[in-house]
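Re: your question from the hallway

Yes, I did run it. Sequences:
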Amino acid sequence: MAGVKALPLILVFSALGGFFKILGGVLYGSKAVFVDALTSIANLIALLLAIKYWRSSLEPPDEDHHFGHHKLAFGGSILTLMAYSFVAGVVTLKLLDLREYSISLNAPLMAFLGVICYLVSIIISRRFSIVFTHYSTFTVSELIEGAVVVSTSLVGALYSYLIDYSGAVLLTLYIFYELRKVFTEVLGFISDVAPPRDLINVVKEEFVRNGLSLSELRLRRVDDRRYQGMAYVLLKPDENLTLASSKVDAIKDALRNYGVELVIEFRPGG
Ligand SMILES: [Zn+2]
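Structure:
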């Protein structure tokens, strides 16, 4: 797969970007660049772990995971939350230190080099498949952060450390915003959310098309493209069970194309 071949390049450029920012934040005194450096490193770790968990989520069902391993993909999101929470704590401590500090002009330079490296890794990742979709949106926000950091650390180095400090505060607030966003996303997936109306209608229509009468339908989201659920079908006392079973099989096959996996049960009635 092309995306996998590009991965080392993406990682090298992301790591290089993080390295420049660490220099700018630690060696050259900019707090704004420091916050950006830590989020970049958290981002890189999150990417690596997301890929690891995404791969294990593709494993077929086995003895200890009868429904498959789809939800293992959320290991990546949960670890993203952990990495960003850790960074949020570290930078908050850094911000609580209110003493005056001075910033070298090398800090905005390093931040700028970091942005260039990120730009390259985004361009590479944009060319490849779905695996990196989440990652490239993450890094676009990295670029915006980069622009904020380059400008505030530059003005901070030339005029007042307070400008650099404000940049650091802004970025820290953004970390908390991202944390909230990722948390909501994860919660949405683990809380058995029903599919969108359109998809529910597709499922119902499939039963109508096959002449079966639906008494109850329950669906829940498993991951981005997958739903599982159960349906209760009302059978008239004189209905042919073999015929009804073959209709059920047809419905299951048709719905599999929409990522819907159904358990269908017969109930007397109709
Ligand atoms: Zn397993």
